[in-house]
Amino acid sequence: MLSKTMFILASAATLVNSQFDPTSVPYATRQAWCNSQTSACPILCLQLPGASGTPTSNTCSADTLLYDCVCSNNIIPNASEYSQTIPYYTCTETNNQCVKNCNGDSTCQNDCRVKNPCGAQDPKRVNITTTAKPTPTVSETPVNTLVNGATGAGPRMASVNMSHVYGLCVLVGGFVAGFATLL
């Protein structure tokens, strides 16, 4: 089963890499991208029903930007719908290179970004002021299904926006630190 997964991932990565040359990005940047990808994989898995935060496979090669993220329930999350993942970074860098090649033509530069959007395109909007528990929206890709995340042909997955939680923690921490210095 795992060898079948590796073939599918290699095929998907070949499709991605046929559109993006990893050597066009400095090696140190590619290493940072891989670190982000392998850090994101467990978090992506936690969003899938029946999966733990411990993937059965979580690798990334800075040389080729080929990555593998298989969750404990044998499902591959659609990493193209999230930031801090290889598909997001390669999409963003492709857009940056496109803009650079426009030589200042603003219409061309706009087309680079508009015609090749990166990350989640249709996230579920949740009213965060309600007291009802929202139902999470997830997209599952069985191991035996090829997802072409680079072109957006895969299923859409809702982005998780935790900024309000982090903001509240920073705010409370600031108040506590402020009061502590007054004492």
From TrEMBL:
Keywords: Membrane, Signal, Transmembrane, Transmembrane helix. Residues 19-123 form the DUF7707 domain. Pfam families: DUF7707. It comes from the Eukaryota. Residues 1-18 form the signal peptide. The chain crosses the membrane at residues 165-182. The keyword DNA damage does not apply. The keyword Manganese does not apply. This is DUF7707 domain-containing protein. It comes from Penicillium flavigenum.
